[in-house]
Structure formats: structure tokens, C-alpha cells
Amino acid sequence: MSAAVIVFPGSNCDRDIAVALEAALGTAPLMVWHGDSALPGVDLIAVPGGFSYGDYLRSGAMAANSPIMREVVSHAGRGVPVLGICNGFQVLTECGLLPGVLMRNASLKFVCRDVDLRVERGNTAFTGGYKVGDVIRIPVAHHDGNYFTDPDTLKSIEDNDQVAFRYCEPDGTVSDAANPNGSLANIAGVLNGNGNVLGMMPHPERLIDPLLGGTGGTPMFTALAEAVAA
Amino acid sequence: MKARVHITLKNGVLDPQGKAIHHSLEGLGFDGVDDVRQGKFIEIELSGNDPDAARASVSEMCEKLLANTVIENYAVEIDD
Predict the structure, then answer these.
(1) Predicted-complex ipTM score
(2) A34 is catalytic
(3) B40 bridge partner residues
(4) Which domains occur in chain A, in start order?
(5) Residue A149 sits at the chain B interface (C-beta within 8 Å)
(6) Number of structural domains in chain B
(7) Catalytic site residue from A13, A34, A86, A142
(8) For residues A186 and A184, what is the distance between their CA atoms, to the nearest angstrom?
(9) Does the distance separating the beta carbons of A94 and B64 come in below 8 Å?
(10) What is the extent of the structural domain holding B40?
(11) pLDDT per 10-residue tile (average), chain A, 230 residues
């Protein structure tokens, strides 16, 4: 069992996700440079947060066309779990693995704070450690997290139960006031149709140690470790 | 040859940056501004001399990288 973290020029959460994955899997993930073109025998892929290629053109647009992303898309097609966090979410939408796009925050401001998320899907490799309706508190830190898609795509996402997390109040109420960035339908995390690719703006990898404020992110990595071991 | 590419947000896509620019223009005393939409303008120098081939090539560039067609439209002009 092995995991890979894709590293782009400008990635800055790659070490954090590596620590989180190693804690859950018991082995350190491969750190794979964006210019590489092979991803041998990998059971789990993480696309980390950061500012790949300086966010030039659009966040994630350059990274989505990196040589290694062809391999990531191919692995995703074979059912390998792929987790994209923050900039990784932007990369996964830009390369077409996930629907929609992350636009500039409605406030135009960089948002860096803890947010509450309601778990909308529990039966995936990523969210098996949570129950539907659970509220978890996880930090966001982004400028382009405003999830948008056309109405037909939104309907298909909702109908297929592809929303993994929504921004909510501490009691689980989904409201405009709890939406940090203007995302459509308060969407904070979305799955592909098969449920093996997840993109999310909040950072579970920053919440795996009490020293860092809590362990609310740990169940995601524990669930992933169990899913790939199964 | 030179290609000029205009990338604009589709109708119905909110443009908070355009709104902020609109607000600033009003703050500067420019009356009569009804709406502002922000986009991108990209110039590309091309080798070759076939305008139709250039247009096809630049359109493909837009589809693959320059524009995100979920939210953006693009228009290509070729200068001979």
C-alpha cells in the first residue's frame, strides 16, 4: 500500500498532507514532482494546497496540464482515491476530474479562519469516518474558493449525491452567513460521479494534532487508510 | 502573425471584481457607469502565415488552457 503526494512549483501544503498520510498509513507517501510522468503502484493520490504556478492565468490551470496529471486522471479512472485540498481542488476541477470551478471569493478577500462543515456523504473512502449530518470544524485559507457551476451541473451534482461537505453554522444549519466565500449551495467539497475523487477547500490535514488545535481531520485519513487497505 | 484573445465571463456568472471596479469608478466621480465586467486579454505571436490554421490552433489553445469554458467565453482575432 502506498500513497503519492503530487508536488507542483508553488505547492505549500505538501509536507502537511504527507505528515497526515504517514500518521494514518504508517508509511511515508511518495513525493512526486509535477514534471514526472510515472506513478507506479500507487493506491492513493493527494493533490495538495498551495499556489501552484503562482495561480497564473487561473488557480490550478497550469498544474492541471502538468505531465503527471495525465497519470492522476488515468489512476482516478481506475478507481484509485484522489484527494484534492484547496489548490488541489482547483487543480482537479481544471483538469476535469471534478465538476465546476473555484472562482475569486465573493468578498474579494483572502479568507483564513476555522469554518464549520456539515458532512453530506458518509459512505466514501474519504468520509467513512464521519456520519451524515456530523458538523466538523476545519480551517480554510484561500482567495479562490467560490464554488460555481451552471444550474444543470448543480442539479446533477445534487441528484447524484456528490456534495461531500457544506459550510454551515455550528448547529449544522446551512446559511448564507456561514458561507465564507460565496460558494453555490454552500458547497465546500464535491465528489466525482464514482465517489473516488474528492475536492475540498477546507484543510483537514491541518487538524490532525491537538497541538495544532484539534484532530477533526484525523477521521478522514484513518478512513482513507482503511479504504486502501481493504 | 499575431493572435489577440479576449476572455470574458459568461452572462449570469457573478463578477465580484467587476463590481469592485464599478464601485471605485463611482467613488472617483464617474457617473453613468451601468455595469463593469472584468476579463483577460492575451496576445500571442505565431509563426506561419495561414490565418485559418492560426485561428483553429488558437481556439484549441483556448479550449485546453487559456479559458475555462465552464465560466468563460473567448473570442479570437488574427492580425495578418
Answers:
(1) 0.85
(2) no
(3) B7
(4) 3-229 (3.40.50.880)
(5) yes
(6) 1
(7) A86
(8) 5
(9) no
(10) 2-79
(11) 94 97 96 91 95 94 95 96 98 97 95 97 95 96 96 97 98 98 98 98 96 93 92
